[in-house]
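User: Quick sanity check before I run a bigger batch. Here is a single chain. Can you write out its predicted 3D structure?
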Amino acid sequence: MEQDKPLPARIKAKAAELGFAACGVARADAAPRAAERLRQWLADGAHGEMIWMEARADQRVSPAGLWPEARSVIALGMSYAPASDPLALADVTGRGRISVYAQGADYHDVVKRALKALARWLVEEAGGDLKVFVDTAPVMEKPLAEAAGLGWQGKHTNLVSRDHGSWLFLGAIYTTLDLAPDAPGNDNCGSCDACQRACPTDAFPEPYRLDARRCISYLTIEHAGPIPHEFRAAIGNRIYGCDDCLAVCPWNKFAAAAHANRAFHPRAELTAPALADLLALDDAGFRQVFAGSPIKRIKRDRMVRNAAIAAGNSGDHRLVAPIAALLDDAAPVVRGAAAWALSRLDRARFEAERAARLGEESDPEVRAEWRDQAPSDARSRSTEVR
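Assistant: Done. Predicted structure follows.
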């Protein structure tokens, strides 16, 4: 009978029923090295503008820092393994690339809904107090998932699973119950450095360490201002996130798309959106296109900025008109990106617009975009990474 099984086994069975592909248990104090690594990462400034990482570091370093009563952590993973190659659009002119995880429903909603259902079941089954987390609280999901045996933190710093590759959304339940822990995950990266070599912006100063300030996911999602010139060409047509380091992981060969949670199946309009359509978005249009998607949180200006950078990298002269229309945009970050893109797509048009606009532009960063690209963009090109 199911009721005769140990509680951790019943938890795992219920988790699978709710759509989780992986589940494990760790003691609340099972990842002590994570605190030291986090503090060093913050001290190095590698978190960039993600000030919330520093502001709540004392709560993030261990479950006890956030909730002293926690005794066990139930770590859970939900697969979003893609059915097609995430890198297939790398050279497709006029189309934007959206990270696999953001092409479907918002994982925050889907994972939290399942976590809450599991939590309700656990309280009915065994009592105790608990808290559920998915990405929005100061919780170090990856070290805890490794401690619970779901996999290991790979050289790209994300969790790698023997069964699901690099394609797991993570969630956690902190509980006052004393549950028998699972064996921790073992590092199986070996000598492989595929993820390190795949990074377009050299965001890994060394294996197992990420400098977010150089990461395309950070630059296109978390970074609010103009994207630094040295990274613009390397961004290519990535308009939200970057899958390169994840997609080349050899362990992905075991990650079957058939096992992915159906909630994350891609929406057709988000698999290869036309840059021209994205450049034309206003606030209402952005909200409509990205309703129910995690992309909605970056808001319209940041998405159009990203699309303008991708347009500048496209070499597609058909995008000159929609780019030029953004030179009058209300958002400085959009105007600046549009000026840069125009300098790449149509030099004569850029020079004419520069002569007409530079003297009237009030924003210093936009003025810098007009000045830095004249009389040629050789200076910016010389600093672009591969």
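The longest strand covers residues 72-79.

User: Great, the batch can go ahead then.
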